[in-house]
Amino acid sequence: MRIQYFSEAEYMSRLRRVKVRMQSEGIDILVITEPANIYYLSGYDAWSFYTVQALLVFQDVELPLWVGRLVDSQSAHVTTYLPGERIIPYPDIYVHTPDRHASQFIADVILRESPSVKVVGVEMGAYYYTARDHAEFVAAMPNVRFKDAELLVNWVRFIKSDQEVAYMRQAGQITERMMERAVEAAAPGVRECDVAAAVYHAQMTGTEEFGGLPATSPPHMGFGERVREPHPIFSDRPIDPNSVANIEISGCRLRYHAPMSRTVYFGKPPQSYRDLASYVIEALDVSLDVVRPGATCEDIELAWQKIMSAHGIEKENRLGYSIGIAYTPTWGERTASIRRTDLTVLKPGAAFHLMAGLWLKDTGITITQSFVVTEGGYEPLTRTPRALIVKD
Length: 392
Known about the structure:
The protein is α+β, with helices and mostly antiparallel strands. Helices cover 34% and strands 21% of the residues. The chain has helices at residues 8-25, 35-42, 73-79, 102-113, 131-140, 152-157, 162-185, 192-205, 271-290, 297-310, and strands spanning 29-32, 54-58, 65-69, 87-90, 119-122, 145-148, 220-223, 243-253, 256-266, 320-323, 332-338, 351-354, 357-359, 364-366, 369-373, 378-380, 389-391. Strand 5, helix 5 (131-140) and strand 6 (145-148) form a beta-alpha-beta unit.
């Protein structure tokens, strides 16, 4: 059985674009350890990234090599388009053994396949490329020059194909259902964890046409005073009457994400809070109006800040970030950010979470929008109204 969500032609196109970047950087072999990048270039998908695994891309060889733990190699046969001879497993003696390390095995594979290799690119900042991994590579390949290739593949991923956008739309539909269930379940006296349970059920169930997967992180839900925090985790405390909740979630469809945040007020919001919500929504709408091919990430942030500054509000943290494929611990792609100084030019197929969240000294509010850049502007990936949700 083979499970493939993209055509082999699309994988080959992705590889070609990666190799163009490798050539411009003078890299002979690229060692990819970020799970999202392995998935992007091969389709490999399993919860196995807690042990060493890599996809090796050779400048002068058409197909990459998958190298990973023996017990996980079955997943490589099932989820990738690679022929069996391009799947290289290592035995379990390399797993959590003090005097052996899987990087030694991978280094041997590299030197066997390309004895004269001169420059090897590695993802120095990838979450699952550790200092130990790198030290073992350096020791095992003393005649090789290592070059930091962090984000090389991430930037190739930055522009999504039509099929990728289709999966992100589906992720957005799941996100909408998750938020609907969260709002239905949340009420004074209900435990926070019970709201989370409703969110998880909707996340896994998906829609009648397609199911969901776990997102990269649990729902970020701040209730009461914790609305001042951007990334709180729910507890088993009951929701207080006349209080506020910030809910940040994302549906996940085949590892593609489409996050969204909304604020729920339990009771009658004071006029000052309604005003704050109106400022955020106005700035969010004006920012989205800027989105079009040729605009920059900075342009979006400047439009937001112009509105907020008029109301005496400054947002220190970035306004958004690129999204797409993601694995734990984050659904951000780690490439472009919507903020001042980021002059990344928008092109059709780039996708972002416009994270118009405010975490202030005495309160917080999060009303956000995920979108993909189109030829004429943008397409929202979720259709939930951008509004303060009030439950009297």
